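Feature request disguised as a bug report, sorry. It would help if multi-protein outputs had a clear separator. Right now it looks like this:
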Amino acid sequence: MGHVNSVLLAISKSPNATVFQKTLGVNDFYFGEPDFPYPMGHISFVGKLDAIALTAGAPALVPGMTLDIMAKHSLDFWLTSEDLPHPDNRVTLHRDGNIVLAYTRNYEVGHKRLTKRLEYQLQHLDMHPHLIPRNLFVGNRIPLAGVAHQNGTIRFRRDPNRELQST
């Protein structure tokens, strides 16, 4: 089991002079909503990005001045949703001793809904109407290798199909 993570920028119509932005955490949608009773996740701020950090994911044709203006107006969000257990997810050892991670990402629906909820909330503030995916990786989602830790349980046995027996 892992986390489904995204980093998204919202561009404010007015400047955001905050330096230490990691001060917000919203768990209101962690257990879903009245019309969606499933976990969606957690919204928090990520540290304030600057023009230099934005260059890593920006197309080469975007001028530095544009990135500087974007950075000065950005609110930088970190979204985390729980992934669900999958019976084929496992950690094994290869013959040569290297660790082999088999992982199937799942439960995208809650994370997508959390992103839409954030977009909706921001439209009621002084924000432009779209979130911009921000990622140092190819694509819009941080892969399992990009998270600081893995979590969940691991079944220890030679036969992964054999159920645990109570004693």
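(second protein starts here, but nothing in the output says so)
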Amino acid sequence: MALRLAFLASDRPEAQAARAALASRYGEAAENDADVVVALGGDGFMLETLHRALASRRPVYGMNRGSVGFLMNDYDESGLLERIAAAEKAVIHPLMMRARDAAGAIHEVIAINDVYLLRQTYQTAKLRILIDGKVRMAELLCDGVLIATPAGSTAYNLSAHGPIIPLSGEVLALTPISAFRPRRWRGALLSHKNKVTFEVLESEKRPVSAVADNVEVRDVIQVDVVEDRSISLTLLFDAGRGFEERVLAEQFTA
């Protein structure tokens, strides 16, 4: 049976043009009927597509028609069915953020890339960090802090000077954002099994937002983050250019 493809594209003109060309060449299935979803855009659009795939769990093959394309394959209209058939699979597990705000409301949000806390005003955030219920840092003064999955480790985490991590490492990156005290703390690598809790200290004076990918919760007082192994998402990469190879190569670029 022929591989059924659904094509999704970002709003960029080059992505829309690519979608029209590929659909005309290979035919197009409805997203709910497809064997593989082909995402056309940059890494931001790949993130949107993966969130859409949370319900169907269909594998996603991306081609770069955006600015940044770490999670995307090179764009080429020819041989698409053969490339997908030979593609390497990368299975990723998202984070579950459970945030409690100052009004007592609970917000549960899935994050594929990262969860981060950021100060809302000119005042630095003051946070306490617990790992599996044990206080590991009694007080961190900072602009913020983030926890990233391997898939998200090359995004905001890398910009904040956090480590790039492979999928096979089964670790999460805990990275401060402009730490003021302790000034020399550079973060930690955690087991994917760890539960991370952030407690916001002096929350009325130093309000903090929590963000899970593109969903923001303001005025949080506590945020719990765990990896959700019950959810598996599959990314497809061209043979020889899998996620692990990309992570390795990225660490040797200037």
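Even a blank line would do. Unrelated, but nice: The longest strand covers residues 134-148.
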